[in-house]
Amino acid sequence: MTAANPIFQIEKEFHQSIWMDNLSRDLIESGELKALIGSRGIFGITSNPAIFEKAIAGNKIYDADIEAGIKAGKSTLEIYEALVFDDIRKACDIFKPVYDESKGLDGYVSIEVPPTIAKDTDSTIKEAIRYYNAIARENVMIKIPGTPEGLPAVEAAIAEGINVNVTLLFSVQSYIDTAWAYIKGLEKRVSEGKDISKIASVASFFLSRIDVKIDKMLDAKLKEGVSEDTAGKLIALKGKIAIANAKVAYQKYKEIYGSDRWQALVEKGATIQRLLWASTSTKNPDYSDVMYVDELVGENTVNTLPPNTIEACADHCDPASRIESDLETTYKYVETLKDEDVAIDLDKVMDELLEEGIDKFIKPFDSLMASLETKVKQLAAV
Question: What is this structure's pTM?
């Protein structure tokens, strides 16, 4: 470990865990993933359909297992699951020492249920249970989208004793609903006389996609021709809303987990559901490449970073506890969106982002299935 790496400072001084948003068999088998735990302070890992599409499509490292699946008469979907579950298990084993040393706080590996069922509660519950049992690792987290249909599945999965990563959260209200789904799941488990001390959950709150979308709307208004005062107001909002939205969510987090209702669960051994910052690679080159790290360092949170942002942070992050800094300005940014000369409906933007987020996972999932099907046909013909 190097003391010069700001990631270690973030974890040691500010109690925020850094996880990586990336997984492939190459990373696992080369030893790089294990090395990153020591050299970069990576305490967990997340995956999604887009990550697995990049990992599997066109990569010969999976061919032997695909051929074995063909010989076993497996369908393309069964072959996909065999490949992915194997990677997840191996990653869980690599992170098990982190899980043990942190007493179950960190060391988790997340895998998402098929994005095609994001709006099907019953199917999501069934798949979450099936994935959890098939992978059979205590440090696996099942990702469930925070859709209106997904949240009852979150509650049910928690009640079943499954670790859950609630993903695709954009609005503060969706975060609040997620926190209560977690709490209700634990309460149900307690009512059945079951242990809740080993259940973990994170609420994955997305960032950069918010700024990308709202900045485009602000730019469009600027192009229409506005007064100097309005132009100044619009420009001042650029690149500010995602972080402001996250800071508001953190205040709600403190309220919920400071409640008597939560304290009653703590007495039964409950572990707090941490907010996890997701979509943290900066898309606009005019902004700092670590803005979604530096501005959101806060106690009892997780920040999940893609590899390029991990390297950028290890090089030049400036750790300080900023999650509760300048809250007056934070709320002002959000309120200014409602001004007549700005007129951006944040709730509508968040609803659109959720729909787009589901689509951004369905497309690579479908694409991966199609490329796997092609590879299955090629290898079967050999």
Answer: 0.95
Owner of token pair 């249909």: 149
Name the token pair of 23.
């997984």
**Do residues 139 and 96 lie in contact, with contact meaning Cβ atoms separated by under 8 Å?**
yes
- Distance from C-alpha of 26 to C-alpha of 251, rounded to nearest angstrom: 40
Report the pLDDT averaged over residues 293-305.
96
Q: Which CATH number among 3.20.20.70, 3.40.50.1970, 3.30.420.10, 3.40.50.1370 corresponds to the domain 6-208+243-324+354-376?
A: 3.20.20.70
Return phi, psi of residue 330, to 5°.
-55, -50
| Catalytic pick among 90, 143, 240, 247 | 143
Checking if the pLDDT of 294 tops 70, the result is: yes
**Has 143 been annotated as catalytic?**
yes
* Residues 158-185: tens digit of each pLDDT: 999 999 999 999 999 999 999 999 999 9
Q: What is the DSSP letter of 42?
A: -
Interhelix angle 346-381/63-71, nearest 10 degrees: 70
User: Between the CA of residue 373 and those of 70, 78, 144, 338, 366, what are the distances in Å?
Assistant: 11, 11, 26, 49, 10
Q: Is the pLDDT of residue 139 over 90?
A: yes
Q: Name the CA dihedral angle for 14, 19, 21, 25, rounded to a multiple of 10 degrees.
A: 160
